[in-house]
Every structure is written in structure tokens, then in C-alpha cells.
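Example 3.2
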Amino acid sequence: MDATENNIVLQLRKVRKIFARDSVDKIIALNGVDLDVYDRDFVTVIGSNGAGKSTLLNIVAGVFPPERGGMVIIKGHDVTNLPEHKRAAYVGRVWQEPAVGTAGKLTIEENLCLALLRKHPRGLSSAIDKQRRQQFREQLASLGLGLEDRLNTPVKNLSGGQRQALALVMATIGNPAILLLDEHVATLDPRTAQTVLQLTAEIVHREQMAAIMVTHNMEVALRYGKRLVMMHKGRIVVDIGETDKKALTVTDLIAAFEQAAGEKFLDDTILLSSQE
């Protein structure tokens, strides 16, 4: 990957986020994060609970702004102060819970139309036509789950894995600049999680997207994506590129963390491979 200024999709500069600032429960969730994500860059982000992973995604998505002085730049546009609904033109996102990213009472077709409307506001009925339905069928067929023949099925009738696969299509159908995956297989059973992870890798590769995937699992972080970022106490402490990542083991990653953080790695929960 040619990592030049011309193909930077996302830039985070001096990003800090503090919660409960004036309270005894004050939390510095992000503490001076700088990050560049490049065109077609698939970054997996690993870290313990409280490391700042989901907060990082929320900052990118516009759920809340960084502290004063921090900047979020997407495709050369300063979006630091854009609210979440206006940031949707740049960002696609899949959440941990399938129900969050999809509307259960609406059909598969209606959900896909809503996803398109986030980037191209029009009436729902005008977004559904013969050409659009064919596009939906083609994109759903690529999942291999038979959803292309169920366009009129209410989404609440789908399994968790089917619903999360649909959420992936919804998040990418408008060709966003960057895809955010927030522990999007954490609530699925191991077999379904594996299927959704493989579909994720295929979609990101096929659509030639930049993506950030947060995970709690080291083996998943090593197996998927081109680049690995490890967070600790609101900071990025490890950032490993594609070439080095290919040869990396869990033991190597722990050693890299301990060297960078200057402390022992104590969180056994993200070593597990039975989930995610």
C-alpha cells in the first residue's frame, strides 16, 4: 500500500475525549490519539475494556466531538464539528447488536432503501424501483444466504447472523469513505460469527474499502485485516503494518504491547478464540 498524503481516507489529530469531566468518576477515554487510515486499509483494533476502542469509533462517526484541539478529517474534509446524521455521507457502521443497525418491522428491501437515503435523501417510495431491486438482489446474493429471494420479509424474522450480514450490506451500499465495525460479531454464536467475519473480509475486499474493525479477540485481530492497532488507556500503543502482521503470533503481540506500554499484559479475556 502506497501510504501517501494523497490516499489518506481518515486522519485523527490530537483526539482526546473526557467523560464526567467535573466528577470523581472522570474518565479520559482518549488521550491524544493520532491515526491515519489509508485507501483500502483494513485496520483491526484490539484492546481491553476501557482502552478507548468504541470511543474512537464514536468520534469518527460523529456521535460526539473530540475535546477542543482535536480534529477528524475524512477524505480531506474537516468533519470535526459535523453531527452524526451529516457524517453518514462519509461513514458506514455496523454495531455490536444487529437490532441497532436494522429496522425489524421493515422489510429487507425497505431497510436497504433507508440505507441509501442516508446518503441520497429522497422519499422511500422513489428509492424503490426495478433497477434498485436488481441491485439489492445482486448485493444480497453475494452473501450466499438466500436473502435475495426474501426482499419482502420483515427483518425481525431473520436470524442474528442474517440480520448482521444485512447490516453489512446496508453500511456499504452507499459507498462510504470508511466502514466502522464495532465488535459486530460479539453477540453471535461462534459458527455464525465466523461466517459474518468471512463475509466482512469479502465485502471490504470487493468494495475496496477503508475499514476499522474493533474486536476483543487477539486471534481475530491477527487473522483479519491488513493492519493491527492496539489501544491501552486511551492511547494507541502498537501499530503494525501488513507485512509484519502476517508473521505475528499472539505471543509476539503480547510482547509488543508490554514493550510499548511498559507494563505486563494482564487481560486474559482478549486471548480467547471461542468467540469473535
